[in-house]
Design goal:
By secondary structure, the chain is mainly alpha-helical. The protein contains 14 helices and two strands. Helix 4 packs antiparallel against helix 10.
């Protein structure tokens, strides 16, 4: 039974994720699910560098912002099709991550965390800078138009953007899964767990850490691009340092060093604050904190780890 779940579970999940929302979800609910896909890619990017490679980052909101702005600028200023902005966003964010990863090699632990945290603080301010506000729109931001379904498909804009985002998400998750389960993934984990032994085995630690940071930034940047297409608006105030902390929370809740954990983390990011606000209009932050503590108590290794234990028990029975 466990083998069947492992083999067919992802395919069944993809089919259900594509079919059920189109049949039963409203436009706003589809918008929320599109953001879940964007958040899942962003958390996945953070998980690659922190969960698998051991480099603690509190600045991935900056890569998310760069990806969103690349898409918004290209769509608004140059009338580039939304789908064509994603490869450009991926390259720009990968280069940004690579350049940040090079000096980060000299840092580790809390020092790297503070460095990336400083990046998250600085980027929203830089986006308001008057020398580039002709591109970024300054404090006013940029408004873009949500794309319609191509080829006269009988789909609303919300349905099409969701399906497009889901397709991109499936592709990126498959890429990440192949990456972490192959030779590169084993090297990443070896660097995290036993860096001295990894170096003795011939692993180029500097190269792997830098490339991991670049790959991580690419995933998160694509998430930002999808979010920009869905929200139809970007502004510096949308990418505060709280966003980076939120991604970190999503990674821990979903499960560090887990591909599927990014999905659960994204669901937590999108829906739990709404649940907390619904339960208490006076103190939603307090309710959110209680829910967060409860998750940490019930699933200290993350939701993905908890589900793995459940499936293992079912397999034994």
């Amino acid at each position: 039974m466990h083998a069947h779940i492992t083999r067919f579970g992802p395919l069944l999940f993809i089919v259900l994720a594509a079919v059920l929302p189109l049949a039963f979800a409203s436009g706003y609910q589809l918008f929320q699910l599109t953001l879940v896909v964007a958040y899942a890619l962003s958390v996945l990017g953070l998980n690659l560098v922190t969960g698998y490679n051991g480099q603690v980052s509190l600045g991935h909101g900056a890569f998310y912002a760069v990806g969103a702005y690349v898409t918004a600028i290209m769509m608004d200023r140059w009338d580039v099709p939304y789908w064509a902005t994603l490869p450009v966003s991926a390259v720009v964010c990968a280069v940004f991550g690579f350049l940040l990863g090079m000096p980060a090699l000299r840092l580790g632990g809390v020092y790297l965390a503070l460095t990336t945290f400083a990046l998250a603080v600085a980027v929203p301010q830089l986006l308001k800078y008057k020398l580039i506000d002709g591109w970024t729109g300054g404090v006013q931001g940029i408004t873009i138009i949500k794309p319609d379904a191509p080829y006269d498909l009988p789909l609303t804009s919300d349905q099409w953007v969701y399906l497009f985002s889901l397709a991109v998400g499936v592709l990126m998750f498959a890429l990440a899964s192949n990456l972490v389960h192959g030779r590169i993934g084993r090297a990443m984990v070896a660097i995290r767990d036993q860096p001295i032994a990894a170096e003795a085995m011939g692993i180029d630690i500097a190269r792997f850490k830098t490339l991991t940071f670049a790959t991580s930034a690419m995933f998160t940047g694509i998430g930002g691009s999808l979010a920009a297409i869905a929200v139809q608006f970007v502004s510096p105030d949308s990418f505060t340092v709280a966003l980076s902390v939120t991604f970190f929370v999503g990674m821990v809740i979903g499960g560090a060093a887990s591909i599927w954990g990014a999905v659960f983390g994204a669901l937590f990011i999108e829906f739990v604050p709404n649940i907390a606000d619904h339960l208490s209009k006076a103190a939603p932050g307090a309710i959110y904190g209680v829910i967060l503590i409860a998750f940490m108590f019930l699933a200290p290794g993350g939701i993905a780890s908890l589900l793995r234990r459940w499936f293992a028990r079912l397999a034994v029975k």
